[in-house]
């Protein structure tokens, strides 16, 4: 868990650890939630190309690097490149928002959401709720949560590494996923034109 010396108060330290636990629990929930559905659906395409494991690796790596950069094992010039103290609160808010967005996105898709890139016979293109504006809000939530952890710890190198790694990994995943969706849903090209990939009005 987080080092208490990195926070302004015991309350901040406690909230950060609760949010970190919520992040991990939410990912475990999503894993079992999607696993139970995958076994009950007949798949017509499972072109994942290992991207599921790439995202798992990114999750673990980003959490490790966030804590490693603020630990005593990190070189002094990395450990001391920090943001002002109030960024701890901003980071924790971002974690909470990210978790909520990801869970909401998963529950909106229901049966259509899977950790593997796959298409089932009964699957339909979902364009309501968050998906009316953003095509991959579950990934948006995950990126925000991971960035929130590094921001809460206020370490600049960690924030940059997490941002770059998350963007690259999720971009690879999205490329694979959208190629499959483009193949099986005729209206997907038009849907892409009307929506943003990850962040509304930005990207």
Automatic annotation (TrEMBL):
One of its GO terms (molecular function) is methyltransferase activity. GO terms for biological process: methylation. The chain crosses the membrane at residues 13-33, 53-74, 86-103. The keyword Ion transport does not apply. PROSITE patterns: S5A_REDUCTASE (PS50244). GO terms for cellular component: endomembrane system. It is found in: Endomembrane system. This is Isoprenylcysteine carboxyl methyltransferase (ICMT) family protein. It comes from Blautia luti.
């Amino acid at each position: 868990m987080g080092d208490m010396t990195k926070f302004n108060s015991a309350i901040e330290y406690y909230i950060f650890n609760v949010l970190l636990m919520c992040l991990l629990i939410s990912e475990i929930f999503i894993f079992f939630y999607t696993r139970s559905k995958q076994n009950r659906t007949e798949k017509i395409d499972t072109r994942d190309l290992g991207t599921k494991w790439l995202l798992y690796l990114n999750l673990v790596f980003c959490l490790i690097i966030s804590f490693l950069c603020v630990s005593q094992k990190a070189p002094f010039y990395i450990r001391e490149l920090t943001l002002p103290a109030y960024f701890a609160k901003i980071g924790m808010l971002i974690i909470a928002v990210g978790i909520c967005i990801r869970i909401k996105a998963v529950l909106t898709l229901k049966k259509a959401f899977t950790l593997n890139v796959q298409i089932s016979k009964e699957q339909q293109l979902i364009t309501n709720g968050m998906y009316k504006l953003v095509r991959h809000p579950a990934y948006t939530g995950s990126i925000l949560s991971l960035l929130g952890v590094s921001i809460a710890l206020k370490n600049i190198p960690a924030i940059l590494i997490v941002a770059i790694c998350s963007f690259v990994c999720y971009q690879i995943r999205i490329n694979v996923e959208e190629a499959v969706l483009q193949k099986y849903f005729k209206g997907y090209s038009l849907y892409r034109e009307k929506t943003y990939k990850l962040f509304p009005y930005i990207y």
